[in-house]
Structures are given as structure tokens and as C-alpha cells.
Amino acid sequence: MSKPIHLANFRNDPQKCAVRTEPYWGAPIVRGRFLGFRKISSVAGSWVARMRSENKAGKLVQRYHALGNCTDRFGYNEAKADAEVWFAAVEAGEGSNTSVTTVAAACRAYVTELRNGHRQMTAHDAEKRFERCVYENGLGGKSLAKLRAADLKAWRDGLELGKASSNRTLTALKAALNLARRNKHAPASLAVELAAVTPYKNAGKRRDLYLDIKQRRALLKAASGAARDLIEAVIVTGCRAGELTSMTYEAFDARTKAASFAGKTGSRTVPLSPSAVALFKRLAKDRAPGDLLLVRDDGQRWNHSDWDELVRDAAKAAKLPPGVCLYTLRHSWITTALQGGLATLDVARLVGTSVIMIEKHYGHLVASAARRRLAKVAML
Question: Which residues are bridge partners to 64 per DSSP?
């Protein structure tokens, strides 16, 4: 075994040792745990961890783990941090089964942590985002130890979501990964990778794509089947698509002309417009208690993004502007309601958002409506 050396020197000057297969091992980090540097070429090397532990037969064995190439961003300190994570994982694996090893596992652990902390609404929102964008995505199976900023950027840019929605999903994922890092399930160096992935800029700007009633009718006419029902439901309620696709038979009360929706802001029961009542009566006619009111043409539950292409095709057939999606219809409902004189508080309650968000994105419409009403009031 080679003599222990100060491996930190190799970060700045890899010329200090000769090329060889056997790593140069530093002094023990703690007893039986080592960090080594393998010289690959005259200008390159990689980090290796070594740990002495007992196998199932009780015999002491040496375990090795490749940590990655030595770079400006992955030097001695970062390699040491990753080695310590691996040491902890090996120990946990001998006494219990450590399951938080992938991005998807970290996300599930985060949702559980939120629920245990009685943050049910946040947990529900995060879980839905992970179901849509992580669990079935290639990123979900990525090892936490091998996760890099490039992986996260490629994932973020491939979501096919609006910038604001992409940013919210990225925030939820970062929270999950940071929890894994704090719990020693991910290397400390992951913080560097996360910091390199920033949210989209100008994502919270006011929404501008609005469809008037003629355009909304054209879109509805161009759609067919289950997609048409879903589009109509968003047009007449202003609800989020997920709130509608999770709506069951019991959620609609034809007697009181009201419906209950469960979304990221919690549950709410709201009155329905005559057109919404007519739609839900038609949908409920063929449903039984426990059934979903809105399902795909094959009778299966709508999954997020199942409708994206169907809506785009209908919008194209109706010769509408590029970028039309179901959220465009929600935005159009809110805009039309405010222009029609509905109070800000009423609109916020009906669509399941806050007055602050309404004023942030639609303040100009609120002021305009107030100005028209004020002009009709005689003050002098």
C-alpha cells in the first residue's frame, strides 16, 4: 500500500504524481475510510473512495467506489464530501435498506416529509408535479450521486410547460433534492449542481394570450370527443385542468347547481353558471357514484399532458394564435369575469386562487372595471 499523502495538492497540480493504476491514498478520513486519487494521464485523474467493513460472513473486506474525474468544480473537498455520503450509504445498507438513491426516490421522500409535517396542500402540489414531470421521466431514475447541472437543465428545458409552471416545478424538485442532501442521501457537491440551474427569467409577467367568445366557440367546434368536453369544462368554469379531471360524480350537485373542486389551493365548493350546470348534467347522465365525470375517449383517467396535442390540433384547425392551451382558457375566463364586473374576491374564490394573484396578473382589468362602475356613481 502506498504511503499516505496530502491529496488536496492534486487539485491544483496533477503533475505531482506519476501515472499508475493503483490510486494514491490519503490519510484516513476516519478509521478504515480513505479517499484516493488515481492518476489517469499526465494531466488528468479521478477520485476513488475505499472503505474497510465487514461482509455478511463477518469478514473484513475492502470496498471501492469511483467518485468521478478531478476537475475545477470537483476537487478534493467535493470528492471528500461525496466519499462520506457513500460511506454512510454503505453503513446504512448493512443495517437497513437505504432507498433514497435516485431522483424519483428523493421526490417521494420529500412528499412524505411534507405530509408528516402537516403541509398537505404543498405535498399534494409537489406530488402532482412529480407525477407529471419526474417519475416517468428519464431524470427520475438518475442516481443522486451522478446527477449534474446539465441533467437538470435538459430536464427543465424539455418539460414543454410554460415558463412560470416550469419554474414552480423546478423549485419543488430542488426542495426534494436539497432534503436528500441534508439527510446525507446525496453528496454535498449536489448543492453546486443545483445552484447552476436557475429559473427562467420574466416568467411571472402578465398573461397576454386571450381568446374572445368567438374564438372560444371556434375552438370548441374544432374539438371532438372527450377533448371537447374537457375544453368546454375549462371554458365554462375557469378551473385548472387537474381539478376537472379528478372531479367525481358526487362532486356535482345538480340541486344546488354547485360543484366541489380539489386543487393545489385546497378544496372549494362554488356555484356554477347555467352553461356549466348544463355540461355537468350531461356528463353525469352516464356516470355512477365514484366515477370520474371527465375521462379520455378510451374511458381511462386523463393524465397530465394527455390533452396537450389534442388542444393544439383543435386550436390549429380553428386558426387560433400559436400557444393556445387549456390554461389560455382559464386566463380567458378570469379576464372575461373581471371585465364583466365580478368582484376580485368572487373571481379568486371561483377559480381557486388568491386575491393577491388576481391583482398581480389582472390588476389592470380590475382598475378598468372599477373605473367604469365609478363613472356611473353620482358624487356631486
Answer: 50
DSSP 240-288: -HHHHHT-BGGGEETTTTEEEEEETTEEEEEE--HHHHHHHHHHHTT--
Query: Which residue in 235, 238, 240 sits closest to 318, CA to CA?
Result: 235
Per-domain residue ranges of the chain: 9-95, 103-195, 213-375
Which residues fall within 8 angstroms of residue 356, CB to CB, at 6 or more apart? Answer: none
Q: What CATH topology corresponds to 213-375?
A: hpI Integrase; Chain A (1.10.443)
Is 207 exposed, middle or buried, given 0-12, 13-18 or 19+ CB atoms closer than 10 A?
middle
* Terminal CA-CA length for the chain: 98
Cβ-contact 338, 347 below 8 angstroms: yes
Look up residue 67 and give its amino acid: L
Q: How many Cβ atoms sit within 10 Å of the Cβ of residue 238?
A: 24
Cell of 228: 371537447
**Would you call 98 exposed, middle or buried from its count of C-beta atoms within 10 A (0-12, 13-18, 19+)?**
middle
Contact 311, 302 (CB under 8 A): no
Instruction: State pLDDT tens for residues 291-330.
Output: 999 999 999 988 766 888 899 999 999 999 888 989 899 9
What pLDDT is recorded for position 87? Answer: 81
C-alpha distances (whole Å) from 119 to each of 115, 183, 195, 269, 348 are: 5, 19, 25, 21, 22
Quote the CA–CA distance of 241 and 227 in Å, as a whole number: 11
Give the CA count within 13 Å in the CB-facing half-sphere of 186. Answer: 29
Amino acid identity of 57?
A: A
| pLDDT tens digits for range 246-273 | 999 999 999 999 999 987 778 899 999 9
